[in-house]
Amino acid sequence: MVESGTILLVEDEPIIALMEQQKLRGYGYNVLLSANRESTLKVINSDHPIDIILMDIDLGEGEADGTAIAEEILLTRSIPIIFLSSHTEQEIVDRTEKISSYGYIVKGCNDTILLASIRMAYKLHQSYMEKEHNFARLQGVITGTNVGTWEWNVQTGETLFNERWAEIIGRSLEELQPLSFETWRRFVHPEDFIKSSLALEEHFNGKTELYECRVRMKHLDGHWVWIEARGSVITHTETGRPAGRPEWVFGMHTDITEQIRLEEAILKSENKYRALFENIEMGFALHRVVRNTDGAVTDYEFIETNESFGRLTGLEPDAIKGKRVTEVIPGIENDPGHWIERYAEVVESGKSIQFESLSEVLGRWYSVTAYKPQPEMFATLFFDTTDNRQLMQELEQSVGVQKVLMKELSHRVKNNLLMVSSLIHLKAVESETDLSDIESRVTAIANLYEELQQTVQVDRVPLHSYIMKIAGNVANNFHKRIDLVMDLAEQDVPTQTAVSIGLIVNEIITNAVKHGFSSDRIEFPKLEIRSSIEGGGMISISNNGLPLPVDFNLENPKTLGLQLIITLAKQINGRITISRKPLPCFTIRYNVSSGYVSY
After folding, report:
1. Per-residue DSSP letters for 14-45?
2. Residue 122, CA distances (Å) to 5, 83, 97, 99, 165 in order
């Protein structure tokens, strides 16, 4: 709110109220007046948008004073209140600060102080509301993730927990009062308390970015709950780290009891999973990288493999255990699959990868997933895709045949459309009826199939080439000598989009040739078509013929041709605009990626 907004001025002296209202209105504020509690609460309860309240303290005999009214307002609405009074006694100022900390202005102060106080109060309120919003969002995230939160002042021992923190151990915050660091210590397992203290010390000394520790806490029912404890120092007693001593630490507790039980179950079922590991159809291998004296990974050795590994590679698992890959598979360091380099990247970055590659040494294609289970180690899961690759090649050959058939179909459709166009032309000559519009539309579609026949793609059309054919055919159909100027950017568009744009261009240039050049005064008829790739695409069509009729309007199309143009533009989410001067010009803008709308 800068020099604007609505102010509610609560003042019982009418002359002072009117003077202040006039002054503030002069600075651009909307000012509402109120003289007592009843009228003030009426405005407040009306949900009228109020940005600031200027509250007088003394409101006359028999009236509640401004501080009481302010307290009543703040029970229902959050509005910054500035107290405006002639009092300068410290006890009155102190009393207002307990109600609202947005300011206290002594009546009679100059305008600069008053306006600055209003601006400052509004900014403070905006900041407060933003913090409230962010806090509410944070609380929503915490509630949604179902984690307990804790805040601990290392220097004073002050400790705060949320309700979920207590619920994890079967209690409520109320029964844990008073809260302190000892509250945590009372419930944590003694062995884990020592472990947690060491982890905290490492974090305080800057050795770790986060405090992380798994601990057990005693539940009300008597069992131990496993907790994933995480936290971080958020303030220090002095500037800088590690010079400053940790002050406030913020953290979270997550109940991982079920996760621990699952991990224990996995360990107990090791033999069963070992059987699964040995019989799985996918190949598995665990490796350790080998580095040279410069620290670069140049080799890797086999630590463990399963039976499927031997079946898929032709290598005997027991025979290769403990050996290097360059020893087991000579020449692999020069294999185009770059196996050693890829696995080295997994170990260095810690990120898993998935890829498919040909091993020329083994003569097979493999789809591989590699990940880093431990430092300096990587594991691979893979399966043989050689047969799948051969099948894909056969499918690609089949697709090639389909493309040939599609081109032949496009050729036949184009010829049939041209035959229809010829029949329309003959009928027009016979009946002496002008059917050139219909003939040009059919020819425009035939041109599209000609483009499909000539292109490798069957779902996209070179728009520039397509428009050039349409324009040339229209000029030839009318047997007029027209200077046709075309400057078209190369662009491939979806076939459906090309149909709509082609018919739009056909309609516009057909109308230009038929009606724009109908006068004998046009000695050198000229038609210009230009396009660019601008936000998808743009085509402009202009001519030096007769001006457009005064009643020509795309918003209210009266002819079939204009109605067709509008409908086609909507189908491609396009937009058509017209400029009348200096020459009649149509501009078509379209977005290739916006999709095709059916009507």
Report:
1. HHHHHHHHHHHHHTT-EEEEE-SHHHHHHHHH
2. 10, 14, 16, 16, 37
Of 135-144, 203-212, 298-307, 506-515, least confident by mean pLDDT is 135-144
163 or 143: which carries more pLDDT confidence? 163
- Write the pLDDT tens digit of every residue in 202-254: 998 888 988 999 999 999 999 999 988 888 888 888 655 455 788 888 888 88
DSSP at 102: S
Closest CA to 553 of 544, 565, 542: 565
| Residue 515: count of CB within 10 angstroms of its CB | 13
Which tokens in the block code for residue 248? 């406030």
Say how far apart CA 466 and CA 469 lie, in whole Å: 5
CA gyration radius, the chain: 41
Nearest alpha carbon to residue 510 among 473, 547, 557: 473
Q: Closest by alpha carbon to 511, among 463, 545, 484, 481?
A: 545
Contacts 24+ apart (CB under 8 A), 322-325: 324/290, 324/299, 324/300, 325/287, 325/299, 325/300, 325/301
> Parallel, antiparallel, or unpaired: how do β-strands 6-10 and 30-34 relate?
parallel
88 and 106 Cβ atoms separated by less than 8 Å = yes
pLDDT in tens, 289-335: 999 989 999 999 999 888 888 888 889 988 999 999 999 999 888 88
Give the mean pLDDT of 96-104: 77
Q: Give the per-residue pLDDT at 405.
A: 46
Instruction: Say yes or no to pLDDT of 590 above 70.
Output: yes
> What HEC string does 556-585 produce?
CCCCHHHHHHHHHHHHCCCEEEEECCCCCE
Residue with tokens 């010079």: 243
Instruction: Please name every residue paired with 528 in a beta bridge, in sequence order, or none if there are none.
Output: 485, 542
* Contact in structure between 382 and 369 (CB atoms under 8 Å): yes
Which residue from 494, 523, 485 is spatially nearest to 591, judged by alpha carbons?
494
Check pLDDT > 90 for residue 581. Answer: no
What one-character DSSP code corresponds to residue 188?
B
User: For the residues 176-201, what does the mean pLDDT come to?
Assistant: 91
Per the CB < 8 A criterion, the answer to whether 495 and 452 are in contact is yes
